[in-house]
Design goal:
globular; mainly alpha; 64% helix
Length: 108
């Protein structure tokens, strides 16, 4: 299932939100999220390894996207510039660990 569709069904976003997001760059979206998170902790984000955290967040988002929208794992790995064994490891790291490789129907 599409992440957008899933979030709409949960009432977290609507079509207006999606349209507004489309007008922003990825850098702006990430910057807004960081600023929002910093506000919640009153700017005290020291001691957090933000670059490492962002790397993992972005990696997870990309792996989830390729898992959902690219039919064959070998094609997804190629699109990411990695071998299929590395892709398989990332799937296991970020996607539901109980599902079997490569049965995508369990995720939909």
């Amino acid at each position: 299932m599409s992440l957008i569709k899933e979030l709409k069904e949960k009432g977290k976003i609507d079509e207006e939100f999606v349209i507004k997001m489309n007008s922003l760059t990825m850098e702006e979206i990430i910057g807004i999220k960081f600023e929002s998170a910093a506000r919640m902790v009153r700017g005290k984000i020291y001691g957090h390894k933000m670059l490492n955290i962002m790397h993992a967040i972005v990696e997870q988002a990309i792996i989830r996207y390729t898992r959902e929208y690219i039919k064959y794992p070998v094609d997804a790995a190629y699109a990411l510039g990695i071998d299929r064994f590395t892709y398989k490891k990332l799937i296991k790291k970020y996607i539901d660990k109980e599902t079997q490789w490569p049965n995508k129907t369990q995720h939909q």
